[in-house]
Input
Amino acid sequence: MIKGVLPRELEERFRRRAMEKFGHSRGAISKALEAAIRLWLRYDYELTDEEEFNNRAFEYLIGDLESKYPGMYIVIAEGRIISAHNSLEEALKMGEEKHNHRIVFKVGERPFERVRLGWKASIRPVGHI
Output
């Protein structure tokens, strides 16, 4: 048994989502918690020094990149900008063999936020009159 305390807002969101996914039956919260822990264990890992170095470089450089390289694909490796390209294909080729870890991204592009509308529709067949 695991016990813990969550911020109220997070707990309410978690309970609501668990009920949506697993129904209002006994054990829905346990099922959701198990799924959440499995996901966390799968994706939470220690970064290598090279990954940390590149991530810090990205955070440090991102502001300047938006003014200098708008819309271009940037490759960061070894803690610095390796190259800038007009296409993703070119950027992905850069440093394929040479670098264990590199960050490739398009300047100015933000990942879209997934939105859940909160309503469901069901379609039932309708007979003929």
Notes: The beta strands are 73-77, 80-85, 103-106. The mean pLDDT is 84. Helices lie at 8-22, 28-43, 49-68, 88-93. DSSP finds four helices and three strands in the chain.
